[in-house]
Amino acid sequence: LSQKKAVSGGLHQELKKLKLPTRNKVREIVYTDEINGIGILNKLRKNSTVGELSQINRVIRTLSIDDPILPEFFPKHPQTKENYKRLEALPLDKKLRLLNDSVRINIDQLMNFFVMTLQLNKKIQSLDFSEADDAIGQIIEKHGYSHFLLRKSILIKSLVADEDVIDNVDNLIAASGLSYNNHMVSSLVHCYQEDQDFLSIKRSIMSTNNRGKWNKYTRDMLRLAFHPHAINELDLSEMIQSNLQSSIVDAVIVAKINKQNISEGKYKHLDSIFAAVNDSSLTMNCIAEAYVNSSEDLFYQQSSAWYENDDVIKYRVLNDHFYDSPESEYFTLDDDLVDRISDWINVDNIEELSSCQAMTAHHFLALRDLENSGYITRSSIFNYLIHRSGGGTYVSETELLKLMGVTCDLARTTNVDLMKALALNLDSDISRIIIYLLVAKRSSAELDGYKLRRLIQNNVIDNHEGKLTKFLSEISDKSPAVARYTYEVCNEEFLARLSHLIKSSQDITETRAELHHWMGEFTSESSYHDRARNLIIDHQINLVKDELDDNRIYVDAVRFTEWMEDEVAQELSTILLILEHSDGEKASDYPQLATILERCYYEFCSNKFFGIASYLGRRIRHGTFKGHLYSDVVSVESKSAQLLEDPVILGKWNQWKLKYEGLIDSIVREKLHIETSQKNQGFLSPYIRSTAKQEIAEACVNNILIDFKENRHVYGSIQVIVEYCWRMAEVDLRRVNSYFKGQKLSFMNAPLISEIKENASPEYEQLAKDFARDLQRRINEKLITMYGWFKRPQSVAPKASIGLLYKAVVAEVSQTFRGFKPDTSIEDGDDVEIEGGAYHVLYDAFYVIVYNAAKHGKTNGVVSRSFDVVKSDEQMAIVISITSENKEGQDDNSVRKKLMLSTAADIDNAQLNEDRSGMRKLHHLQKYDKHFNVDETMCSEGKVTVTVSYKLVHA
Amino acid sequence: MKTVLIIEDDEFKAKSLRDYILSRDEYDNVYMASSLVEAVDSIKKSEYALILVDMAIPSHPVLMGGGSPISLLTGGLEVLMELSCMGRTEPCVVITQYYDIEISGEFYSLEEAKEEIFNQLGCSVLSCIEYKEGDDSWKLLLDKALK
């Protein structure tokens, strides 16, 4: 009671320091409803002096201790949620004066915090993680939680061996929300792990959905590890406010990072705490030394754990701005910033960059080693030098090739316009190819893509016998990085436009497959060979498949899958591996997967080569829609010539046609598009915004996680994405059809038709009635047909029927053995459709069996087959038997011996050896696909029968 | 001999264009190309008195059993850039069934497109005309462009 009285007495004294009207307002803030209270506080903040405001804050903190309105300076719980109502931003100077005053009030505690931080840093430096963990515990106990400590803790966590006990660190990370995948914590965990794509994570974090003040705190805290620099004074004021919500320690750190915006000497308590912060740091050399056995990448990723060090900030200022897309909205490369960066740079000429061993103006040998052995700083300086020269510089081919080997991510970080300016100064085709390769993926300008294609084609035709792979081989000797990037750029869309090199549709597929094979050889990664094989198989199947329904809405699943393999598979795989350790319960716990799905769905809708956009352009806008709905309908007039001889009726009819055409034209012009800012009435939205789509997206994410857990491969995830993209598209497709149904009355335009009937002379009355009925029937029929166009096609995932696979394999084998023509006709109802990756495996199996039947079987002998779906032990399987006749003069015994798989037979080498390798190849498939089984190989009565089966997930 | 090259994959539209061109006195012959590859090969082989270019064309000719070509919604621009790169100055007219033309990711009305094609791609065209089946207004616009 006495303590309460003392607090009450103290509070009374503090309240008395405020003017009476302010005192009343403060009471109102605390005791009125929250929204009203925040409004009053915002007004007070605006109109009060810094001294008054500081006092107001103090009183509010004391009065609202049970239900805090303002955050604590040293919170007892980690602040990783939007726990406080966002207050309006103050002008920077006022914000800094307020922070300055808060630092003054808490100076002893802050000073002590940074003294303890130095001790903690020393423990980390000496790799004494147990003591570092103790130090973390002591700091928390004495000074509460902060994101500064969270970063230190995640750093420690990433450094310790699994068996080490670091309870305080673990508790802090857990209390911050890792277990429920709090984005602020999980993004830091990803950022500090090795082999992360920092730029991708940064892009994802910096484009966190802006929900205004409702997630301002989250957005500001998320960016700390990726881009802690304020773009302007208001941004800095907001960042300080957010960090102050976490802890005064974080506010001091973020202010210090941005101290170029803070006049020295004006805020003396800030000046003194900044000095203390820097004093708490290890030297840059000590920090960098810890990474000499890893990489600059990891140093950069984890450098946010060392923001107390001024030199780390200098390192970050360069790389955060020049190792990032210059189009980013969160920074501007103005003169002040570039001048500041120039103080850190020690190289003037791009020609010296690849070999320069002292690129930056500092004396930290360990950092120098990291910079020289890494890629990031050199890439940043490359971009810096291009920026400084406005692209008006020169670099020789030799030097440019060298630079491509010692830099990274230039395609994502260069300034497109400046690179194009640079290309004008270069004197070799290879140099220009390199520059346009770097520009290709980011520039939307038609001319840039054309120039690159022209340069590559000329070079390949003049120097490499028209073979792209020969060009790649030669360039890879000079620069593997350029070869790899050329491979990435040469996707099917790109190849299709190489009109001087690629002369047929088949060449597109074959060249792409050759490129995959080349990459497989180049990198020794078998997945590239698999992609080549799958591409050829799909192509082979398409050759024997009936033509697609031209009118139905369509996405080229094979090309979409190829795009995903190129653009998202690696990122998806990395994220899925990371998420394995997360115990999120619902899809919204996995925002990284949702981001990937959004990207995929956008391409699914908008890609002009394989997406719905290509269909809308090709089949619908391009005449089909109007031809169907207009020309066929108005042709009713040919049957009613007599009726239309009447000028009044003809006038009405022309009026009807005009309105009808106008309606169709407006649909074609405005609606038959993918929604964009220019076509905002477009039928299909490429975004996952509606609740219905979000629910489907959540189900998709869940299925991706399940599939990955079962199969440990992203191929299945990619097929899941194809399926769910269709489900999301269906949401809009249903709206399309509803819209058409809703327009039916407008299409009919009944009043005008009635006028035609009413104005018909008595002798043509019946004719007019028939005319109106016929017109309505035609419109009805056309609409019904059209509803079918905007439905998901039945075949959406890459798939093929067993009969079609067999047919495609026989067609391929027949190209080698011309006389081999077994019956491949498919009877209705006697076929099984296989989806997903299974059909590639079965194609390979068919190929082995059929090829051997053609090669070793009787010339013109009978080849028969059976395909059956069988069920045993709750497991469905497709069982395939192929029987062929023995070659003339061969008895069953000798054939049986050939078919036997000796135990010594090396199954893993089956693909390397052509001679008598058929059975081994089948067993190779069996070994590496748990669903595939070689059931039986037998020879009797002059016939060989091979039976294989494939377990089906669904029947 | 004055030959016109028509780059168009829609058979009906191609026939319509062909008939109209041949009905005019100043042209003697028409050469047809239905894909980007054929168009590029044609302009490599000969020069033409006039080139009519569709915007959306397939990358390659459609051949039975040859696999599907890629649909290039801005394939016509590729032809114009090819001509420009070769230093060719034949008069070109864009005739499309679209209301607008996409250039470098932005849509432009047919009235704006001529200027944008020049500004962004450095290619000159006499006009960009909308073709409508069953409507002869495109003929008037083409006449006007060719005067």
Tell me what you see in this structure.
The complex is a heterodimer of chains A (955) and B (147). Chain A has 47 helices and six strands. In chain A, a hairpin with a 2-residue loop joins strand 5 (932-940) and strand 6 (943-952). In chain A, strands 3-4-6-5 form a four-stranded antiparallel sheet. A two-stranded antiparallel sheet of chain A has the order 1-2. Chain B is α/β, with parallel strands linked by helices and 147 residues long. Helix content of chain B is 38%, strand content 24%. Chain B has five helices and nine strands; from the N terminus they run E-H-E-H-E-E-E-H-E-E-E-H-E-H. In chain B, helix 2 (36-45) packs parallel to helix 3 (75-85). At the A-B interface, helix 27, helix 30, helix 31, helix 32 and helix 36 of A face helix 2, strand 5 and helix 3 of B.
User: Largest inter-chain interface?
Assistant: A-B, 43 and 41 residues
Q: Specify the number of helices of chain A.
A: 47
Major sheet of chain A: order of its strands? 3-4-6-5
Could you give the count of β-strands of chain A?
Answer: 6
Count every helix of chain B, treating DSSP H or I runs of 4 or more residues as helices: 5
Helix content of chain A: 55-70%
Q: How does the major sheet of chain B shape up? A: 5 strands, parallel
Biggest sheet of chain B, strands in spatial order? Answer: 2-1-3-6-9
- In percent, how much strand structure appears in the residues of chain B? 15-25%
| Coarse structural class of chain B | alpha/beta
Helix percentage range of chain B: 25-40%
Main beta sheet of chain A: strand number and arrangement?
4 strands, antiparallel
Give the radius of gyration of chain A.
35 Å
How widely separated are the two ends of chain A?
Answer: 75 Å
- Unreliable spans of chain A are 546-550
Contiguous runs where pLDDT drops below 50 for at least 5 residues of chain B: none
Q: If you average the pLDDT of chain B, what whole number results?
A: 91
* Overall pLDDT of chain A: 87
Order of helices and strands of chain B: EHEHEEEHEEEHEH
- What is the general shape of chain B? globular
What share of residues are in beta strands of chain A?
A: under 5%
